[in-house]
Structure prediction request, 764 residues.
Amino acid sequence: MAQVNRSPKTYDVCIIGSGARGGIAAKILTEGGLDVVMLEAGPQVHPEKDFKMFMWPYDLPHRGVGVGGKAAENFGEFLAPNGAWQIEGEPYVSAPGSDFQWFRSRIVGGRTNHWGRIALRFAPVDFRSKTRDGLGDDWPIAYEDIAPYYDKVESYIGVFGSQENVDSAPNGIFLPPPKPRCHEILVKKACDKLNIACIPARLAILTKAHNGRLPCHYCGRCERGCTTASNFSSSQVLLPPAMATGKLTLITGAMAREVVVGKTGKAEAVSYIDKATKSEKRVYAKAVVVAASACESARLLLNSKSSLFPDGIANSSGTVGRYLTDSVGSDGWGEIPTLAKMPPHNHDGVGGMHLYMPWWKYDRKNDFPRGYHIEIWGGRNLPGAGMFHTLCREEEGYGASLKKRAREVYGTSVGFSGRGEMIPNPDTYCEIDPERVDQWGIPVLRFHFKWSEHEIRQAKDMQETFRSIVETMGGTYKRRTPIDGPNAFGIEAGGKIIHEVGTARMGDDPKTSVLNGYCQAHDVKNLFVTDGAPLVTNPDKNPTLTIMALSWRASDYLLQQAKNGSLS
Amino acid sequence: MSSVTRRDVLRTLAAGAVGGSVLQVIPTKAAEYAHQAVKKEKAAAPAGKYTPKYFDAHQYETLTSLCDTIIPKDEKSGGAVEAGAPEFIDLLTSENEEFQVKLAGGLLWLDSHCADQYGKTYLECSPEQRKETLDLIAFRKNAKKDPSLSQGVAFFSLLRNMTCDGFYTSKIGIEDLQYIGNVPRGEWPGCPELPS
Prediction:
């Protein structure tokens, strides 16, 4: 074997990944006095030059679509770096008959640099879904266990919202919400008629100065990254205080390959590829926190094979990679004549919706289990590439009439994105591909993915709801969806909503779960997984806030264990 | 950050220099950087006429004519050519093999079609002949009646999308839509009065 470059010291904790959950762990553990090393597969982020705040499409030669137009499929070149569906040299595979899309971000802060900032608490019932409908499994913890950590996360990062006393959307600690935009007011009026709850959104964006960060300046483009850190990212909000302790060593360009097990069966080090030198290095730590994102973490555990753990570390249950879910996603839109009468005005607001619809049919009998929330978009957005492709396809032609129609339809659309709960199923999981490795020599993931009738019926319900809202607004519903096939009722391919979770779930029974309620591996007590992997269910609430709360809780526990010597 | 007020930051942001980082605000760099990047791009290109990176002179002239027809200048604003759509399309095509086949091939298809119909290239055709040609390939229903037009329809559809992209990402196109925003604001006032 080639010479392995070992770290000269043993850290208290090695954290793998610098996103939302790695960031939380770094902050809590370093502030608690532990000596922490963090491995990040990507480079450092430099907000002042990486974030394209206030730039216009014409400021860039490619007008936002990137070289050869190819950035368009990755949400455009204005997106804060470096997210992509495909990373050169780092492939993944979908098994025959499956289509799974995996959005990864190799950079300090990970996907938090550009994420949608939607910060929703799970509801008490979400931890007890099986008890309610017999599907999937209950969590080993209850809402009451995580509630204090939701409070801590919201208080620290800053989330706007309102106290609504809606069962499916618990109250939280909120900054004031921004006033609705014009199209959102119209949506709310229609929802009131239809008895659909429509309330202020809950986003991790500051509407007031908070913890030394400036309030939002309402440019409406949070996905580009924010140089004033007025929205939440791990890189700007969690890592600076961890760095300030002097206890955090951040190693960038470090692609974790294996969690190394010592003779006693505990994790003792992490092997990684130093991308700059393409060499193997090893860093020693008394505890390891894996927070590389749900599927990347499953990959790392499965690739960490040893005589003690022939199927991968912490995988005696055989469930690592199993129970994978993404959110059910289906979109629709319509044209609203009332909006055509609005005079031109600044419609930007915060980067994201100001109102949304939490799940409102939880107390009814539906023909699918669980539920979904609806996100709202539309109105007079900053024009960009692709904005008029639908118009071109629908109306065709060219010349003065096309230009006139573009003026007429601009800003008159209202769109909806339904985001619902998928039930884990045995046909949906990830595993190590038996043949392929990436350019770092690390075996890659192979995905299996299948929607069940539960999810298809949910997507059908979304489409019917979108149509009824648009028609109640006096508009014309424009989305046409097939009633069967891989995209029945507009259901997106697995992974497309970027809420993949569940691949190392927590549970009371070590035979059917990987982690306990503190995200600690049943098999290896100094190993923790704190990203989306521990989630037992994937409710209709975007998972980031819950993952951060779980990570905070796990970090408090780890800190306490480290202090009383239980880990070593 | 005590020495930097929110007002200062908004003023700097508005002036084009974007604020710094993390938990403290260092109003410098970002837009500075962006503006430098753009300036560099512009400086690299010699002033005046654009030299196509991919299309030959005839193709580029045909492309320019088509862009001008798809989104023409009118009494309110300039058209796709003034907005730089041909340059934008040429740049993307130079970097994308799929566009190369579809657009360069499509331009040849167009000339072949015009040769069959009128014995001339598209550019040599009279305005009436050009209109007659585009009226055929600008609508999918024509290809249903006459399948020999389907490649022309596919070509025109792609070019129409790219021309719209070029136009509506330009200053001219964005102003044509009367978009207002992409600027820092101290307050968010909400929706102005809705029409009844």
Observations:
- Chain B touches chain A through 74 residues (CB under 8 Å).
- The two ends of chain B are 46 Å apart (CA to CA).
- Chain B has nine helices and no strands.
